[in-house]
Design a protein that fits this description.
The complex is a heterodimer of chains A (268) and B (27). Chain A is mostly beta strands and 268 residues long. Chain A is 15% helix and 42% strand. Chain B is low in regular secondary structure and 27 residues long. Chain B contains no helices and no strands. Chain B is elongated and about 35 Å long. The chains are: A mainly beta (268), B little secondary structure (27). At the A-B interface, strand 2 of A face loops of B.
C-alpha cells in the first residue's frame, strides 16, 4: 500500500441509502442463486466497509441478516409479494457475507456466503407453546407424510405423474397431533396410471415444478391427509441443451417409492 | 473535568453507524 493512503476503506452507516442499495443487490443475487429452500428478504444490515480497489472501483464488504419468506426459490412471485415467515411458524434466519464490486457504476458480486439458522425451539415455545416446531426431513413422520401426500395428489391428478424434488419444510403440530410438510414436485414423462417404478420416470425437458403443502393428522382410527399444490409455469431448458436429443434425466430428483397401500382417508 | 459549551463532546450522543435497523424481528 502506498504511504499515507490511510486505512484504505471508508465507513458508511448501515442505514445509509447507499448501503441499503448494495444490500438489496446482495439479496437479489442470493435469491437468483438459490437452488433450494425459500426466498430470502433483508432484515438487518450488520456491518459495512467500503474498500478502495486499485486501479479503479470500490468493494463493499457487507454483513447482512435475512429472513426466510413463504415463497419457494422456484416460485416466480415477485419478492415484494412474498411474506416473511412469522416467528409463530418457526422462523429461519440467514447470516450472509458479501463482497460487491462497484466499477463504472455497475455492481458485481465477488463473494457470497450464507448460513441459515432456525430460531430455537425454546424461543418459539416461550411465546407460543402450541406452535408447530421444525423437525428433520428424515423423521419417519415426515417421510410418511410426504409419500402419502404425493400419492394423494397423483391419485387425484389423472394426467401427469409428479415426483418429489425436495422436502423444504417439516413441522410437528401438537394439537391435533399432526405433521405439516412443504415440498417441491416436478412433472415427469409418466402418466399417473402407468407408474409402477417412479424411479424410471424422467423429469420433462421443459421443467414444470410445483410447490405443495400437506398435513397428515394422526388419529386413533387412522390418519387423514390433505394436500394442496401450486404448479408453476414451465421453465424452458437451458440454451446449451440439445433440443433434438432425448429428454434429460435429472439426478437431483429423489426417487419416491409408492406407499404400500392407499392412505386410509384422503382429502385433496 | 466538566465539559464546556462548544466542546465536541457536548453535541449530544452520536448514533452508531452499525448495525442498522431491524426490518421485521430478530431471532
Amino acid at each position: 500500500a502506498p504511504q499515507g493512503a490511510g486505512l484504505g476503506f471508508r465507513e458508511l452507516a448501515c442505514d445509509d441509502p447507499e448501503t441499503e442499495h448494495v444490500a438489496l443487490i446482495a439479496v437479489d443475487y442470493l435469491n437468483k442463486h438459490l437452488l433450494q429452500g425459500f426466498r430470502q428478504i433483508l432484515n438487518q444490515i450488520d456491518k459495512v466497509k467500503v474498500w478502495s480497489r486499485r486501479p479503479f472501483g470500490e468493494v463493499y464488504e457487507l454483513e447482512i441478516d435475512t429472513l426466510e419468506t413463504t415463497c419457494h426459490a422456484l416460485d416466480p412471485t415477485p419478492l415484494a409479494n412474498c411474506s416473511v415467515r412469522q416467528q409463530a411458524e418457526h422462523a429461519v434466519e440467514g447470516d450472509c457475507d458479501f463482497h460487491i464490486l462497484k466499477q463504472d457504476g455497475q455492481f458485481r458480486v465477488l463473494h457470497a456466503q450464507c448460513h441459515s439458522t432456525p430460531d430455537s425451539a425454546e424461543d418459539v415455545r416461550k411465546f407460543c407453546p402450541r406452535c408447530p416446531i421444525l423437525i428433520r426431513f428424515n423423521d419417519t413422520n415426515v417421510v410418511h407424510t410426504v409419500k402419502t401426500a404425493l400419492a394423494a395428489f397423483n391419485a387425484q391428478n389423472n394426467g401427469t405423474y409428479f415426483k418429489l424434488v425436495e422436502i423444504s419444510r417439516a413441522q410437528n403440530v401438537p394439537f391435533p397431533v399432526s405433521t405439516l410438510v412443504e415440498f417441491v414436485i416436478a412433472a415427469t414423462d409418466c402418466t399417473g396410471q402407468e407408474v409402477t417404478d417412479p424411479a424410471k420416470c424422467n423429469l420433462l425437458a421443459e421443467k414444470q415444478y410445483g410447490f405443495c403443502k400437506a398435513t397428515l393428522i394422526h388419529r386413533l382410527g387412522g390418519e387423514e391427509v390433505s394436500v394442496a399444490c401450486k404448479l408453476f409455469q414451465t421453465q424452458p431448458q437451458p440454451a446449451n441443451a440439445n433440443p433434438a436429443g432425448p429428454a434429460p434425466t435429472v439426478g437431483q430428483a429423489a426417487p419416491v417409492a409408492p406407499p404400500a397401500g392407499p392412505p386410509e382417508s384422503v382429502v385433496v | 473535568k466538566v465539559g464546556q459549551p462548544g466542546d465536541a463532546g457536548a453535541a449530544g450522543p452520536v448514533a452508531p453507524l452499525c448495525p442498522g435497523r431491524v426490518r421485521y424481528f430478530k431471532i
